[in-house]
Every structure is written in structure tokens, then in C-alpha cells.
Design goal:
Layout: H1 3-16, H2 22-38, H3 43-46, E1 55-59, H4 73-82, E2 87-91, E3 100-106, H5 109-135, H6 142-169, E4 171-175, E5 178-182, H7 190-197, H8 213-224, H9 228-234
Helix pairs in contact: 1-2, 4-5, 4-6, 5-6, 6-8
Length: 235
């Protein structure tokens, strides 16, 4: 199948993804994404030429991060954004240590990426609270307790991010009766890349926390088993 035929098929699949039948829509969307990855196409490539993509932004306000708290959020946002034709950066006010994640892309891509990002953040924070309640509740030394809490959360989140990145890379596509492995990383549209290139570069310095190998392994497993389509449907 040549590129033009692939684009035509992807357009039909994306139209089918608007179906009221949840199962049919889910399968159509996944197959469309796989074809786009196989032929290295962006959503801009398959969009109707009469409907050019519009740059859109989504800012995550539910939780913030700083040099000391939730430092893992930016890398997690980058992994999700870059695998959904978007880019991720952060917003902050001059003089403030508090930062918020911003995801930028074309049309509704940032909304899709933000749904996935929010689910991932909520999951990580839930696991952190669970660990704090079950394993650290008995501790009376607040300084030691906070250090262990930060180590668990940071390690779990980094593991989750690594597992999710691996999941995106290890997508399988059936072709000519064979199963081949390919990275499901959709190429960033030119408009998004140009916007990202125009951003002022900032150097971030994060506090170093102790590593928790068990938390990192658990996080990796959770990130690897993350189901994007399922989470969008349930959101």
C-alpha cells in the first residue's frame, strides 16, 4: 500500500472512530494510529486540506510542581505529549517556584494528551498516598518520613514514565503475515515544532532523592501496562 492509499484508509478509520459503538471506535482509532506510525504520518498529513490544523494549548492546573515537589511531572508530560503529536513545557510566574504543565499541539491533540497525563498523575499520587498510609504511618520522625516518602514517589514516577515510554516503543503491527515491532511515535507537526523551538530555554534544578528500587520496578510495570484508549474512554 502506497502512502496516498494509506492516508485515505487512515481518514476513513478516523471517521469510523467517531462511531457511537465504543468497541468499533476504539479499534478504528488504534488501527489508524498504527498505520500513521508505520508510514510516519502526522495528523496534519491526513487532515483535510480545507481544514488546516489550529495550534491549541492545555494547561494542567490540578497539580503543580517545583524544584522540590513532583519533579517527575515534566518528564512524564514530555513522554505522553511527544507520543501524541504534541510538546510539553511549563508555565510559571516570575519569582514563583510553582510551575504548571502546558501541552501544545494541533486541534484536539492536547486535550487527548492531557486526559492521559491527568490519569497518570492521579495514579502516581494515589500510589504515593497508599504507600505513605500503609508503610510510613508508624513513623514519628517527620524528616525521615518525608525523605522516604519523596524517594518512593520519585522512584515510582520515574519507573512509570520509563515503562510508559517502553510501551509506546513496543507497538506491534501485522504486515504481510508477519508481526513487526515499531515505535508508535507520531511525528511532531511543523507548527508545533516551530512553537517549541521559539520557547525560551530554562535550566531546572531539582532536589536529588534517594532511590527506591522496589517502587521503581512497580512503577515501570504500571506504566508499561497503561492502556491509553481505555483511559480516554473512561475519562
Amino acid at each position: 500500500m502506497d502512502t496516498e492509499k494509506a492516508i485515505d484508509k487512515i481518514r476513513k478509520l478516523l471517521a469510523l472512530a467517531q462511531s457511537d459503538n465504543a468497541g468499533e471506535a476504539e479499534n478504528a482509532l488504534l488501527f489508524a494510529r498504527k498505520l500513521m506510525a508505520e508510514y510516519k504520518l502526522t495528523e496534519r498529513d491526513v487532515a483535510d486540506a480545507k481544514k488546516p490544523g489550529k495550534l491549541a494549548h492545555e494547561v494542567y492546573r490540578a497539580h503543580s510542581f517545583s524544584d522540590l515537589v513532583n519533579t517527575w511531572m515534566l518528564q512524564l508530560a514530555k513522554v505522553i505529549a511527544e507520543n501524541h503529536c504534541c510538546c510539553a513545557c511549563f508555565d510559571f510566574r516570575r519569582g514563583s517556584k510553582v510551575k504548571h504543565i502546558r501541552i501544545t499541539g494541533l486541534d484536539d491533540d492536547p486535550q487527548v494528551a492531557m486526559v492521559l497525563f491527568d490519569y497518570a498523575v492521579q495514579h502516581i499520587l494515589h500510589m504515593s498516598e497508599r504507600n505513605r498510609r500503609i508503610h510510613l504511618g508508624w513513623m514519628t520522625n517527620r524528616k525521615a518520613k518525608n525523605a522516604l516518602d519523596r524517594a518512593y514517589t520519585q522512584s515510582y514516577a520515574e519507573g512509570f514514565t520509563a515503562g510508559l515510554a517502553a510501551k509506546y516503543r513496543e507497538q506491534f503491527i501485522e504486515k504481510n503475515g508477519e508481526v513487526t515491532e515499531t515505535a508508535l511515535v507520531l511525528v511532531q507537526p511543523v507548527e508545533v515544532k516551530e512553537w517549541q523551538d521559539g520557547l525560551k530555554k530554562c535550566k531546572l534544578r531539582f532536589r536529588q532523592n534517594d532511590d527506591n528500587a522496589e517502587a521503581r520496578a512497580d512503577g515501570y510495570k504500571a506504566g508499561y501496562n497503561f492502556n491509553p484508549t481505555k483511559q480516554i474512554k473512561e475519562a
